[in-house]
Structure formats: C-alpha cells, structure tokens
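Hi everyone,

Forwarding the result from last night's run.
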Amino acid sequence: MANMRLIVDNAWDNAILSADQEAMPITNTQGRKGVLREYPWRSTDTTAQAVGGVFPQADIEGIVISRANFTQAATVTAVLKLSTATVDTIVMVPNGTDTWVAWIAPTTADEIEITIDDTANPAEYLQFVQCFAGPKVEVNYNYDLGMKFTKLQDVEHIRTAGQSLRSQGTGLTHKNAKLNFSYIPEVDRLIFVDAMEWRGQSWPFFVSLLPNTGGRLETDHQFVAKLVSDVSYDLSSQNFWSTPTIEFAEA
C-alpha cells in the first residue's frame, strides 16, 4: 500500500489565471483562507474550454480538479510549461467521481493549461470548484492501522411533541478521517508536521489516503480537506516522534 499523499503547496493558488469563458470567474477556484463558501468557475456553454495560469516556478507532482461537473466521457488534458515550452502533457483519466486526479513524475513548470472537451454535458455548461497543482507531501512511515474514516451526513434528528422523529438538513455526506502516527522519524516530522503547521486549519489541501490502489478503494479515500485538529507530537523514543489523533475534514 502506498503511503498517504497530500498536495499542500498549491501553485494554482499563486497563479495569474485565465479562462476562455467565465460565466463565473476562474479566480473562484483558488483556495482562500477561511472562506465561508466555495464558488466554482463556470463556462457559458459546453464548447471546448481552456483554463490555466502562470505561476512562480514550482515542482509539480500532482494535478487535481475537484467538484467538477464533467461527464465520464469528457477529455481533460493538462499541459505543463516552463518558459513557454511544453515539458509534460497529461491526459487525466475519469474515475467515476467528480474529482479528477493525476500523479506524475516531478516536473518543473511555471505554467499550466487545462483543456476540457465535454460538448455533450447535459448541464449545458462546464464547471469545477478547485484545482491543485504542486509537489506531493509523502512521509516515509505511514499512519497506523486503525484509521477511522467516516462519511458524515448533514442531517439533524429532532423528536417532535408527538414523539415521531423529524429529520432536517441537506442529506449530503462529507468525508472525515482520523489518523495516528506511532513512528515519525525527524525527517518525516519536518515534512509532514511542518506542512500542516504552515497550511494551518483555514486553508484547503488535497489528501489521498490510499493512493495508487485503484477503483473505489482509492477514490473513496481522497478529498479536498482542511485540518481540524491541532498539530502536536510526542517524543516517543530516541529520534522518533508520535502524534495524537490528526483529523482531516472534507472542505
């Protein structure tokens, strides 16, 4: 099983973005600290669209488009460029969900262009909420067995005066993961704990808890998240640390 991966340092957030059409602006897709509600980029129709951005030079190892309305028949291609020259072209593969993910070999780039061809989309427009492009954070020692993963449903149950049970809420589900790490060598502490401290609890990042496992096992356990627990760790033995529960909630 591959170790957990995150995209924390998101070049897309630092990019100057552009889009062929903007019924809703492409800048909506950039992560913002403490934002109360996420809004999508949206095109005006379903003609083939190109969106992208220019950003300070960065190493790219993962590309994610989240909460997209693309059909599974869509063709989505990401082109990475460095000083206007193409350095990699990635055809993103649909996985049956609204999140499109591609992990790639480290590629230095300062520009990304994403083309979306989904002319038969029944919504009559194309949209997505967030995009991530950046290096992966991957520790050498994975989280412990016993990960607690929950799909929380937005429903509140209220007992009525007649003692029936009234349920209210959207009924939508959100992913939540609680992890423990028993063995964190110093190199992992610098990689993982520092990344969490830097991003904090107000900024979104992408997490894949079971990368490269394929199928529902992988897609069920990947999501845009926020850290909802404090970052702390204990010196459990010489040169090794451990953590209390670290909690990620779908953002």
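The mean pLDDT is 92.

Cheers,
N.
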